[in-house]
Amino acid sequence: MSTQAEFQTLKQHLQQVIVGQETLLDKLMIALLTGGHVLLEGPPGLAKTTAVKTLATGVHASFQRIQFTPDLMPGDVMGSEVLDVNSGALNFVKGPIFNEIVLADEINRAPPKVQSALLEAMAEKQVTAGGQTRALPEMFLVMATQNPLEQNGTYPLPEAQLDRFMLHIVLNYPTESDELEILRRDRAAQMQTKQKVKTEAFLTPENVMHARQSVVQQHISEAVEKYMVGLIAATRQLGELDSQLEGVLEVGASPRASIALLHAASAYSWLQGRDYVTPDDVIAMLPDVLRHRLIVSFSGRAQGWNADSIISRLIDLVSVPLDA
């Protein structure tokens, strides 16, 4: 079985556990294929945590869930030096960050000090503590969940940390038919627990790293490259494209957004079974790549603009290459 087929088999089995979140499952697998961190946002109860746990089980990766709370300290996440009473030496005890897939649950409930501690791990895949720098696992990946910022007890994530997330996925409530299926599955599980779906491991970290090499080799024409750069560059000169957009953004996207879009579109096309990237692949991934990187100004918000509506307008304004 090819690696692409293995990923499709994994998705099919994940769908037996997660109802009605096909787009979410696709994006989580894109994160696996690129090594890019993911931020999942939505109200409680939408299976964000369950989806990440199930994916980690399906990949047979080392997994740790960290519940972020206002009293969490950096050492609780990264690890700390502990005194050995027998030898008198300080030994470093690794924290939960030293796993291949880390679920940072309700990440925006932790104070800024903890958010800052995460920055090095997410950016460099390493942790510095006790005067030493320690490497994180090769497949290290942070999948974080956050509640909407208007809820009580939340802290906005720093812009520098937000930029380290490759994708920002916003989840909506399930359809009525999906919610009906959720009720039926829950009832069946309560009546006969042996019927509960048990997710098996269909991939290994080695499979994932091999697939990442395949994704890097996806063909991207010069026209599609210029299209990606044009979309990102347009966020810095909105007023020149459309006078109605003058001043709606405080900050546009950096070149890191272009890199993230390149990786995400490549993985998306690979999952479709192609070996080349099209403009449609770029458009499909643009909202999740840009959503958290655009800072809408006060004036923009007053006019009714938000990140998603600006991205939709960008897609309309930037010409799609015909020779891609």
TrEMBL record:
Keywords: ATP-binding, Nucleotide-binding. InterPro entries: AAA+_ATPase, ATPase_AAA-3, CbbQ/NirQ/NorQ/GpvN, ChlI/MoxR_AAA_lid, P-loop_NTPase. Pfam families: AAA_3, AAA_lid_2. CDD domains: AAA. Residues 34-175 form the AAA+ ATPase domain. SUPFAM superfamilies: P-loop containing nucleoside triphosphate hydrolases. One of its GO terms (molecular function) is ATP hydrolysis activity. PANTHER family: MAGNESIUM-CHELATASE SUBUNIT CHLD (PTHR42759:SF1), MOXR FAMILY PROTEIN (PTHR42759). Belongs to the MoxR family. This is MoxR family ATPase. It comes from Thiomicrorhabdus sediminis.
